[in-house]
Amino acid sequence: MASLFSFSLPKPNIIKASSASAATTVVIPENLDEKFGRKGIKFSESNNIPIVELTVRNGSSVRLSIPDAHVTSYKPKVEWKDDGFEEVLYTVGGADSGAKARGGIGLAINDASEAGSKGSLISSSQWTVKDVDSDAIDALQVELSCTSGALDITYVVSLYPLSMATAVIVKNNGRKAVTLTSAILSHLLFKRRNGTGIKGLKGCSYCKHPPLSSPFELLPPSEAMKNDEKQGIWNVQDVPITVLKDKLSRVYAAPPAERSKAFYYTPPSKFETLDQGRELFFRIIRIGFEDIYLGSPGSFSEKYGKDYFICTGPAAMLVPVVVQAGEKWKGAQVIEHDNL
Prior knowledge:
Layout: E1 15-16, H1 32-36, E2 41-46, E3 49-55, E4 61-65, E5 70-75, E6 91-94, E7 99-103, E8 105-111, E9 128-135, E10 139-148, E11 151-160, E12 163-172, E13 178-190, E14 196-199, E15 205-208, H2 221-224, E16 234-236, E17 241-243, E18 247-252, E19 270-275, E20 280-287, E21 291-297, E22 308-323, E23 328-336
Antiparallel strand pairs: 1-9, 2-3, 3-4, 4-5, 6-7, 8-13, 9-10, 10-11, 11-12, 12-23, 13-22, 14-17, 14-19, 15-16, 15-18, 18-21, 19-20, 20-23, 21-22
């Protein structure tokens, strides 16, 4: 197992959970919870969709939809009182509403071959439960896997008392190199539009750029940018806090032309989100990715209700990743906090 923990793991068992096709009836095997369930890790169904819920000792929890590897809820403990839990993710739809869930934390892996993009490499993939792991109930982990052509893709979701992590491992079993773009995009919930911001990217280079297309997107690439905005123009962040009340779509990264140099500036490995309405902040940490995507919807958020959201996360967008035959590529995101 692609464990984030230091101790060894048992040999994994693989159980198919579902097909991601909308026309397929999703059936969860009766022994899924029996084989993989343990204290803090609970498999169940919601409207015939298999899900797994992770809950650590302090009550912080994560909900993951198995068929599409979609994290639909992260609710950490942020206050010492008994009910001191706050939802971090902005998710609409889902099994209870009958509509496909969007938002949350979604993995995007898209073909970026020279012959022309074939779009998402995982939108129709069948995800399976490969393994679970735990350290008492202070660290929990579930591992999903799927295949796309010659690629074996592993997605690991981990939960801790003050953080959660999502990690992807792509192995190329083919005879030719594979070129892809990727991102772990998190739609984060905020109480009000005027109280939304980020901190920690001052001095970073950025350009206006639409997000990667994703099955979980709320704001598609064609609508993410203002009509009069142009891509490819580089600027430097000159303020410590970026207020995200208006529509915005950026990639913070080293310009591709700079990356051939022996030394160049990269964006920081982490930054903070600021929610003045709830007086909460969270650190977003990137591992293995070169870029940071950041987008806000502006008034478009009113389409979904009174709450506000942003979309952000580590990405490999401007310079695609090349995975050589027989090799692996890894990337991860961590969301952590000190609100307690």
